[in-house]
Amino acid sequence: MKKNIKMLIILVFVFIISGCTIRSDVVMDVDGKVTEKVSVLNTNDAFNSPKYSIKEVINFAIEEYLPALNFRNYSYKTIVGSKESGASFSNEYDNICSYFQDTGFNQYVYNHINCSEDEYYITIKNDSDYIPYCGDCSNWPSLNNVNLKLTLPVKAEENNADEIDGNTYIWKYDENTKDKDFYIKISKTALENNRKLLEEQEKSKALKNKIITISTVIIIFLALGIVSLVFYKKYKRNKIDYK
Questions:
Q1: Is 119 in contact with 188 (CB distance < 8 Å)?
Q2: How far is Cα 65 from Cα 122, in angstroms, rounded to an integer?
Q3: By CB neighbour count within 10 A (0-12 exposed, 13-18 middle, 19+ buried), where does 8 fall?
Q4: Which helix (DSSP H) or strand (DSSP E) does residue 61 occupy?
Q5: Of the spans 18-22, 76-80, 211-215, 223-227, which averages the highest pLDDT?
Q6: Per residue in 147-172, is it b (16+ CB within 10 Å) or e — as a string?
Q7: Calpha distance 155→36 (Å, rounded)
Q8: Distance CA 148, CA 144 (A)
Q9: Of 196, 141, 198, 199, which is closest to residue 173 (Cα–Cα)?
Q10: Angle, alpha carbons 215-216-222 (nearest 5°)
Q11: What is the pLDDT of residue 156?
Q12: CA triplet 227, 229, 234: central angle to 5 degrees?
């Protein structure tokens, strides 16, 4: 049953994303959790209707497949732009391998991407061939502009990304892409060291904030004490002068 639902999801996206621009933005947090945001856009002409607005047409298309989207726990919102419109899909995962296993948005480039772990590394690579652009194919989406952006809390040990921006790795696919692999290797030691470093920084920051707070309170009380003493001495002096 689970396999059948997964195939349904793939077929769903065949109809939703054909001819579209796809932007997948995947972020791995320090704690290992992963957030996925995918925008699926097409020209506004693709949503023209004599009776309904662009937003309504998009919602009608998505609502038909809500059971499949809900099965994967996707939330979505429609996007209406001046030239392109579509939808943005979001999801969260416990870890990076869970993302590559459960996402509904990588099967349009590869039938399967394998994510494996050993004691030292997380290795992610396609174990099926790249699916090339096919404008005449009816059983797979015709995608001529696909970007997958993966942001890590540390630098990757190895990768074959098309572009690298700090800890962000970007793979690009278009209608001219004929044969392409996906590969990235992440050091678990680097992830753990980074997590510990950030925890220490957070503790140090919390301690500094506590010291600043206590110091501020002490300074306020000292200032109040000094002001009170000045007024008291002034009061005593005025009392003596009055006598």
A1: yes
A2: 33
A3: middle
A4: helix 54-63
A5: 76-80
A6: bbbbbbbbebbebebeeeeeeebbbe
A7: 19
A8: 13
A9: 141
A10: 90
A11: 97
A12: 95
Residue 136 confidence (pLDDT): 65
**DSSP secondary structure code for residue 167 in this structure:** T
Question: Does the predicted TM-score (pTM) go above 0.90?
Answer: no
**Strands in the chain per DSSP E:** 21-28, 34-43, 75-80, 84-93, 113-117, 121-126, 145-151, 158-159, 163-165, 168-174, 183-187
Side chain identity at residue 161, one-letter code? A
The neighbouring-strand residues paired with 165 are: 168
Q: Which pLDDT does position 46 carry in this prediction?
A: 80
Which residue would you say has higher pLDDT here, 235 or 84? 84
Question: Which amino acid makes up residue 72?
Answer: R
Q: What gap in Å lies between CA 107 and CA 109, rounded to an integer?
A: 5
> Is the per-residue pLDDT at 54 higher than 70?
yes
What whole-number distance in Å separates Cα of residue 182 and Cα of residue 160? 7
CA distance 2 to 149: 28
d(CA 31, CA 34): 9
Which residue type occupies 127?
A: D
**Both tokens assigned to 235:** 């009061």
Q: What tokens does 223 get?
A: 């200032």
Dihedral over alpha carbons 12, 15, 16, 18 (to 10 degrees): 130
